[in-house]
Design goal:
Elements (H helix, E strand, L loop, with lengths): L3 H67 L2 H41 L1
Helix pairs in contact: 1-2
C-alpha cells in the first residue's frame, strides 16, 4: 500500500514541474518570435536585392542584344540600363507597399481580436 505522504510529495513535485514548464515557455516565447521577425526581415531584404539585380541585368541585357542586332553600339544599352533602374525602383516601391498592407492587415486583425 502506498504511503499517503508519498502521494502528497508526488503531487507537490507535479505542481512544481508544471510551474517550471510554464516559466520556461514564457522565457522562450519572445525569443522564437524575434527569430521569426528577423528571418522575415532577411527574406524581404533578399527579395528586394534580387529584384533590383534582376531588373538591372534584364535592362542591360536587352539593350546590349538590341545594340548588337541594330548596330547602335552603346546607346540602346545605356537607355535600357536606365529603364532597368526605373523598373527596379518601381519593384522596390511595390514590395514596400505590400509589406505595409500586410502590417496594417495584421494590426487590424489584432485590434478585432481584442
Amino acid at each position: 500500500m502506498p504511503d499517503p505522504e508519498d502521494r502528497s510529495s508526488l503531487t507537490d513535485l507535479d505542481k512544481r514541474l508544471r510551474a517550471a514548464r510554464e516559466r520556461q515557455e514564457q522565457v522562450n516565447k519572445p525569443a522564437s518570435s524575434n527569430r521569426a521577425e528577423a528571418a522575415g526581415g532577411m527574406a524581404v531584404g533578399f527579395r528586394i536585392s534580387v529584384e533590383i539585380v534582376a531588373a538591372l541585368i534584364m535592362g542591360f541585357g536587352i539593350g546590349y542584344y538590341l545594340d548588337l542586332w541594330l548596330g547602335t553600339k552603346p546607346w540602346l544599352m545605356i537607355i535600357f540600363f536606365f529603364l532597368g533602374i526605373g523598373a527596379a525602383f518601381v519593384n522596390v516601391v511595390r514590395v514596400a507597399k505590400q509589406l505595409e498592407n500586410k502590417k496594417h492587415f495584421r494590426e487590424d486583425r489584432e485590434d478585432d481580436a481584442e
